[in-house]
Fold this sequence. Notes:
alpha+beta
Amino acid sequence: xxxGIVVLAVLCACASATPxxxxxxxxxxxxxxxxxxxxxxxxxxxxxxxxTSSVDDVWLVLxxxxxxxxxxxxxxxxxxxxxxxxxxKIRQRLGRTSLSRFIECGTTQIGSNADxxxxxxxxxxxxxxxxxxxxxxxxxxxxxxxxxxxxxxxxCTSKGLLETRIxxxxxxxxxxxx
Length: 178
């Protein structure tokens, strides 16, 4: 088992990514020195927040929260209560906040890559019923690449702050429960 992990680590370290064109892909195929391909599919867990308000109440305030955080609304699905920017290319800031506060894309000698790279950010929120209240689930996915070099996008990880900000902003705008 241990040798399998070592082989996988060497394979990934020595691999070259399949070139991408324009928008980043969801799956990434790596070709190792041994001639074997490895396809990596990202798994991003949603950050879920339980709310005491109904789905309809949460759904009414969610688009305004996206506006307040400078997230465009490319998808608004009233049937599934899903809202998403469906991906946007941004640099340095989301609204007034540095991207490095929200995502981790590695660092260089000059600082956080999230603040200097082109970032492709996808934010999706869904409201679902949960007992007498609701659950707000938000997923943040990000990829980044340097501006100066012709390089593929690399995966970034969410720090959880954007998901929390969305939930807190929704809670602040909901009618107070008695």
